[in-house]
Amino acid sequence: KAGVTQTPRYLIKTRGQQVTLSCSPISGHRSVSWYQQTPGQGLQFLFEYFSETQRNKGNFPGRFSGRQFSNSRSEMNVSTLELGDSALYLCASSRDRGRDEAFFGQGTRLTVV
Amino acid sequence: AQTVTQSQPEMSVQEAETVTLSCTYDTSESDYYLFWYKQPPSRQMILVIRQEAYKQQNATENRFSVNFQKAAKSFSLKISDSQLGDAAMYFCAHYMDSNYQLIWGAGTKLIIKP
């Protein structure tokens, strides 16, 4: 079966712009989580969605937002981009909860210039 | 608060040898799950092994096994018969149903010497 698909793979944006990243989970998976990975901070949790409901949000400013659609696809949006937002953004899907195996996409590499 | 600590930023091992990666964690919960994930240069995170805290038996997946010491809050990964394809960043992670998130360690870079 198809894995987790993240689009786009690479993105270059200018400070102050906004960006939307997309994640299509494995078919049948209802939980989607997002993580930010940077060399300095490592992997940090952004949010988790299940059946279109956000169940938890990490310690990120309000510029970071997300949503999940009825087909479980998810998007995350970052507004007013800052240089520090440059990172690898990873999406993971699970059947119901993260206690199950989380399957990851290849990530979106965002560079803010 | 949940924390996960990997004290070895980098480890190297000769091909075919055995290596152990360390991980300690802190939690006040009794029901939780522990994972080792591998991230090769292609950057896609792949599950290596999963442990349920309520199970005393250590998880094993082929050449990969864990030493789970619940009282000591220790969860080390042993890789036997190391292969060149094992070279990657290895992350230890902790999960609780109460907050729906994986808490990650800083990672250990594993180098395999041919």
How would you describe what is shown here?
The complex is a heterodimer of chains A (113) and B (114). Chain A is mainly β. Helix content of chain A is 0%, strand content 53%. In chain A, strands 2, 4, 5, 6, 9, 10 and 11 form a seven-stranded mixed sheet that branches. Chain A has a four-stranded antiparallel sheet with strand order 1-3-8-7, with no helix packed on it. In chain A, a hairpin with a 2-residue loop joins strand 5 and strand 6. Chain A is globular. The termini of chain A are far apart. The relative contact order of chain A is 0.33. By secondary structure, chain B is mainly β. Helix content of chain B is 0%, strand content 54%. Chain B contains no helices and twelve strands. In chain B, the strands form three sheets. In chain B, strands 2, 5, 6, 10, 11 and 12 form a six-stranded mixed sheet that branches. Chain B has a four-stranded antiparallel sheet with strand order 3-9-8-7, with no helix packed on it. The radius of gyration of chain B is 14 Å and the shape is globular. The termini of chain B are far apart. The chains are: A mainly beta (113), B mainly beta (114). Chains A and B meet through strand 4, strand 5, strand 9 and strand 10 of A and strand 5, strand 6 and strand 11 of B.
The proportion of residues in beta strands of chain B is over 45%
Largest sheet of chain B: 6 strands, mixed
Shape of chain A: globular
Helix content of chain B: under 10%
Low-confidence stretches of chain A: none
Q: What is the helix content of chain A?
A: under 10%
Number of strands of chain B: 12
Shape of chain B: globular
Overall pLDDT score of chain B: 94
Bin the strand percentage of chain A.
over 45%
Number of strands of chain A: 11
End-to-end separation of chain A = 37 Å
Number of helices of chain A: 0
